[in-house]
Amino acid sequence: MNCASKEDEMYSPVPYNLEIPTLFANKLIAPIIPVDNPLTKEGVALGKKLFFDKILSGNEAQSCASCHQPQNAFSDNQQFSLGIDKKLGTRNAMPLFNLAWNFDELFNWDGKEFSLENQAFEPVTNPIEMHENWINVVQKLENHPEYPALFLQAFGSSNIDSTLVTKAIAQFERTLISGNSKFDKYLLGEATLTTEEENGFNIFMDEAKGDCFHCHGSNNNPLWTDNKFHNNGLDTNFTDLGLGAVTGDPNDNGKFKSPSIRNLAYTAPYMHDGRFATLEEVINHYSEGLQRSSTIDPLMKKVNQGGVGLSPKEKADLKAFLLTLSDPSFLNNPSFKE
After folding, report:
1. pTM of the model as a whole
2. CA distance 215 to 224
3. Residue 147 and residue 223 share a domain
4. In which region does residue 263 sit, left (phi positive, over 0), alpha (psi from -120 to 50) or beta (all else)?
5. How far apart are CA 255 and CA 258, in angstroms?
6. Which whole-number Å values give the CA distances from 206 to 20, 128, 210, 215, 329, in the listed order?
7. Domain span at residue 278?
8. Which of 138, 212, 263, 268 might form a disulfide with 73, Cβ 3.0–4.6 angstroms?
9. Residues in Cβ contact with 277 at an 8 Å cutoff, skipping those fewer than 6 apart
């Protein structure tokens, strides 16, 4: 019997069961788990260790968590994250949660990565981010006192490669579930909204007022995003083509993925380029700051008026509602911390 088969017989990873919030179970289909990368307790634990380990970067000074910080709902509070060579990126780091329900499996602001596994692959070699190569990463992991045994437990083999590394990281990322905000509790009959918060929700849902729900979900879509790509009127001309640079279709220029509006209290600055430092600025954009362009989304119905034209009171109420979607228990979950 060869060594590989002995390893296979010795280790049988334990299945990991996601803790799915009640609203998700009631309103969404089951999360997407690839058949070739099932969740296991050993795989998730390995992925978590790798996510927080700076060994993946060229100078071992930066980890995935350096730009996706738990205290910021796994985003970065800087407009652009700083790579290991002190180079700034050009986009804001997206928050990471509820990724297992991204049903089109397109990730990043521009949708260029298909699957979480592929998304985890590129930052390691990106010269602006971790600036390492996978040959070095594998060698460092193989020479590490702990990792060979952890890979053996998670995948039945101590032969480490980039595929197994990204599979483990993706497993951990799929466990990052946020579904315990004040508004979640309200929908379950466990909390009461203030008058301002309730007014804000009504504005959010009113096509004649905020008209936000088409892209950013509703009480019937607990993800609070459609996970699709839109030109939301940020610019007349584009320095960043977004989805258009991926598809090559000019009709996609200026389109970016709708982020979830969960956890907005922790994920500033906002938009793909972090141009808005506050929620007030975001609301002002949709109220009176829309810019017309050739690919403006038809959902931006009032672009000719500059926006939906909310009053100061309506803006304040809308902000109050948006903050009810923040989930402090997600930030404080020990399973998601180093």
Report:
1. 0.95
2. 8
3. no
4. left
5. 9
6. 29, 42, 6, 13, 30
7. 182-329
8. 263
9. 268, 269, 270
